[in-house]
Design brief:
Elements: H1 3-7, H2 32-52, E1 62-66, E2 74-76, E3 92-94, E4 100-102, H3 109-121, E5 127-131, H4 134-140, E6 160-163, H5 173-183, E7 188-191, E8 195-200, H6 203-226, H7 234-244, H8 247-264
Parallel strand pairs: 6-7
Antiparallel strand pairs: 1-2, 1-5, 2-3, 3-4, 5-8, 7-8
């Protein structure tokens, strides 16, 4: 496995027909090139989705995807390009040393510090998403976990954690290591005074999980502001999580949003 071979990756290879609107049937990929192309299309759509919901914040925010052929490398958005403008051709492929092996734009050092540690510590994590979304970063200042107060928030019951040691912008690898250690085997983490971060074995599930977590933060903030919340009992929350929080359920929940991004502006496929 050499960088020369990696640099020869052609992201134009493997193009297959887009899913039918409303379809919840996973697309079967017959080659590595098809799988890579499919996943990069979802990754690029994720940035458009984040822009659509206002999760962009200047230079902040990043989403990564482990390469299906070279698992020690991951794809990430370039530094300084607005989420609304990101296309597949803009994405960077980065190795464990933080070297850009494909792409010609600068790399966000915070993105590398956080995501490289996550991908290294969790071989099961194929993607991770982080942004400074309004309700997520606001909720993070409370230094608390989400409560199971709605069906949707039950997705995170016993499956998220809190990193409560904010020390400034994450630029050091050691900080990323501490975040990865705190995440443990959970799927999501609240970074105190910073924002949210979600992970998954599929890019689709990771993106939906972030949107759901942001809305769960919003819901709890509103509920707490108007009165006492009625917490769902643990056993019911645990059951609900098993129904709405499966990998397949998360993947399926993203499909209508992908359809929306395609219909709104499919230039992210370029």
């Amino acid at each position: 496995m050499t960088d020369k071979k990696i640099e020869e990756i052609d992201i134009e290879l493997g193009k297959i027909s887009q899913k039918t609107k409303g379809s919840l049937q996973p697309i079967e990929c017959k080659t590595t090139e098809e799988l890579r192309r499919l996943q990069l299309e979802r990754l690029a759509s994720g940035f458009r989705l984040f822009a659509h919901f206002g999760f962009d914040e200047g230079l902040a925010g990043h989403i990564t995807l482990r390469d299906p052929e070279f698992p020690h490398y991951f794809w990430v958005n370039p530094f300084g390009v607005h989420f609304e403008q990101i296309c597949i051709s803009d994405l960077l492929l980065v190795n464990r040393e933080g070297e850009v092996v494909r792409g010609d734009r600068p790399l966000n050092t915070a993105a590398f510090a956080i995501h490289s540690a996550l991908h290294k510590a969790r071989p099961d994590v194929n993607s991770a998403a982080h942004s400074h979304s309004m309700y997520g970063k606001t909720f993070s200042t409370m230094g608390r976990l989400l409560e199971p107060i709605t069906q949707d928030s039950c997705t995170f019951f016993e499956d998220h954690t809190l990193f409560d040691d904010y020390t400034g912008v994450v630029n050091e690898a050691s900080e990323g290591d501490r975040i990865a250690k705190t995440l443990g085997d959970k799927r999501a983490i609240i970074l105190k005074n910073h924002g949210l971060l979600t992970t998954g074995n599929s890019i689709d599930g990771t993106l939906w999980l972030f949107l759901s977590m942001e809305r769960s933060c919003q819901s709890q903030l509103i509920a707490e502001s108007i009165g006492q919340m009625e917490r769902i009992p643990d056993e019911v929350a645990r059951l609900t999580k098993s129904q709405v929080g499966t990998d397949m359920a998360l993947w399926a929940s993203y499909q209508p949003l992908y359809d929306l991004m395609l219909e709104k502006d499919d230039s992210f496929l370029n």
